[in-house]
Structure formats: structure tokens, C-alpha cells
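Chapter review: from sequence to fold.
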Amino acid sequence: MSDPLRLPGHAAPRRSAPAPRSGAARRGKPGATPGRTPLVAYVVSRFPKLSETFVLFEILAVEQQGVPVEVYPLQREPAQTIHPEAQRLVERAHYAPLLSLAILRSQLHYLRRRPRTYLRTLFDLVRWNLGSARYLGGALAFFPKAVHFARRMGEDGVSHVHAHFASHPAAVAFVIHRLEGIPYSFTAHGSDLHRDRHMLRQKVAEARFVVPISEFNRRVILDACGDEHAAKLAVIHCGIDPEIFRPVPGRASEATGPLRLVCVGTLHEVKGQAVLIEACRLLAERGIAFRCDLVGDGPDRDALLRQARAAGLEGRIRFLGALTRAEVAARLRDSDVAVVPSVPTRDGRREGIPVALMEAAATGRPVVASRLSGIPEAIEDGAQGLLVQPGDARGLADAIAMLAADPPLRERLGAAARERMLREFDLTTNARLLAARFHRQAPSGTEAP
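The C-alpha cell string follows.
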């Protein structure tokens, strides 16, 4: 396992200038050269966020397709542990505070040159987010930074903006488009789409294209925004690297001892670890030998520890904390069954297709997961794993017990799960689809702000 990269005392690495990229950086205004390689700016919520591997590795995979990428985080994630692969992007990411003299100068720049566009954009952000304290607060907080990003991207010749998440990042991309005419797109995942859809219609209407990560999400967007936008919606799954997440041949047939369960994800209600702990209590009552590893950290850690202790499972459930991608892959290879017990939360959060599910399936592990959102699009019940109703601890225990008693079934489901990941969820293949859209959507002339 590779050692995680640690940032002592939460100190942020010093940003260095990006390396020259054969004419990709610092071009003229967007669309100045027809047919050129696009320079894509990724707008993300927090960077580098350990749990958002899908953003990091998508960026790296898109760059491998020959598309230069610059990263514009809305906030710096104060992480002590990051994926080693993120270091290069961290060093050149375009971090900015919420307010600074440079940001104030950018406001004055547009107030002098495009006052009506500037004020109209701010007005629209406010009126379209009224009724949502969270979205309205985010719109107002990030608007000055979005304006500053617009000016920098215009000066650097960015040809396309891609936002990850339909929430604040998509709103920032919308502002950049309004001020500089740079076309934008965004990827809609889970809670960013399902929890609050204020301004979604306007974000979709002005976007060049939209990437729902599942057919389920595509239908949610069309139901909210209208079928007239169907042509600009392209389902592209988040991808995994099948060389990192690969199986150990014969793992299920050779396994001895207690059944080894693993659950990867932020320790939060939406991930369903509380349901899994209750299922583990039921398994223990039935006399089934098991060990359950919870990989990840989060706000519910203390509550989950108390629940495990109260259930008498301290020796059977281990809390391993946050791990790097290589360490997660090693834990999956050492497991018998991966559990993804996602649930919709009381405040409306829900998963899309969890990356942890894809990684486990690519590793050849049989998956027990919730029948929720886009999960059935990745795992067909009885074909690549077993699906249960969200929040059903007894159903979850029954499914795990079935796999505990049948190693050949584990082997068969795990092999089928990997085959499906190779066919539909390969990182390089899906990054190629996204990169092709960036090329296709690169404008041949500047759009009028």
C-alpha cells in the first residue's frame, strides 16, 4: 500500500505556476482559434477532498486524453491526508479567498465595462435562489469569487468551464458564462441534485451540455426542467481504474475464517453505516462469524462507535479512518463482500451511484447495496450483487448471510460485477467520452456576454 501524503498542521502547499503546455495555456479570448485544443477549467467545491476521488481521477484521465485542465476550487479543503496523485494539481490550482483586493478589482472591472451584465447576473442569482437559504447564501458568498474567476479565465483563454456538482459550482460556472461568454457544462451527482433544485432549470437552460451520472439523474433533471433539454443531457458514469481495482483470482473459494465485510464511505447518515451496524448485530445473533471494516471518516463517527459498542460488536467492527485510493483497493482485495447500505436522509440527501460501489465491483467483490437512485443501473439484483430496500437492516443481514453461506455465489457475482464495470464504468473510456464533448463544444467564435 502506498503511504498517504500528509500535509502537516493543515498547511496549504504553496502554489507554483503551471508548466507550459505546448500552446494550451494563455491563449486569446475564448474561441479565437477554430479547431484548437480546448483549455478546460474545472470548478469544484473543495479541493483536494479525499472522498471525491471521482473528481481528481477524472481530471487526470481527461488530461491523458490531451485536454489541458486548470482547477478552480471554491474552497481549499483543510485535509491532512490527500491522494498522492492530487499533489500536482494542488500546487497549480487557482485558489482564492472569498474576498481580497484582487477580487474587488475584478468587480470594478466588470462594473466599468459590463455593468448591466454584472448587475443582471447578480439579480438573477438572487431571484432564482429565493426560498433556499443554503443556495442563496452560497450564491452571495461565492459571487465575488466567481466574477474574479471569470476575469482570470477570460485572460487565460479558457475555452470551456466544467463544474462538478449541480449546486454552487454550477452557479459559479453560470456567472462565468454570463460575464465572459465562455460555454459551460456541469456534472450532477447525488445530493447536489436531489436535495435542492433551486435554479436548476436556469443552469440547465444556459449550459452547453449537462452530465447526469445515471439515467435516474437524467430523468430527475428532465422532470424538473422539461423534455426540451433532453438533447443536451449526456449520461456519462463516473469511472474507476480497473488496473488499481482488480480482483485476486480464486479469492472467494480460498477464503477461510470469518466473513470479511468492508464498507467504504464518509461516516454520514446518507451512507447508511448505522443500518449496517444493526445488520451486523442481527448477524451476530444468528451466530454468523464476520468482521466488518468501516473505511472513511466523518461527522457520525462518534455516534457509530457508540452504536457498535452498545451492540457488543467492538471486536467485530473496525473503524479504519480515511485511506488513500491504493489503501482502499488493498482493503477491498482483502474482503469477501462489499456493503453499500445507502439511505435517503431526513434533509433530502441521497447518493447517485457511489464510487465505493464501483470500486468494489471492479475488484471482483460481490456487492450488497441499497435499491436506490442509480445503484440498480450498476448492480442488477442477483446478477452482479444483491439489492435490498434502503434502511432495511434485516434485509441487509439476510443478503449478507446468503453470501456467507455460499462462496461459489460470491465468486460468480463478483466476476459478473467486474465484467460490468469494465464494460460501462471504465475511467479511461468515460473520460474519453467527456473529452470528446469538450472538443466538440469548443466554440469557433466568442459568445457575446
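Two observations follow directly from the output. The CA atoms of residues 213 and 237 lie 5 Å apart. The two ends are 49 Å apart (CA to CA).
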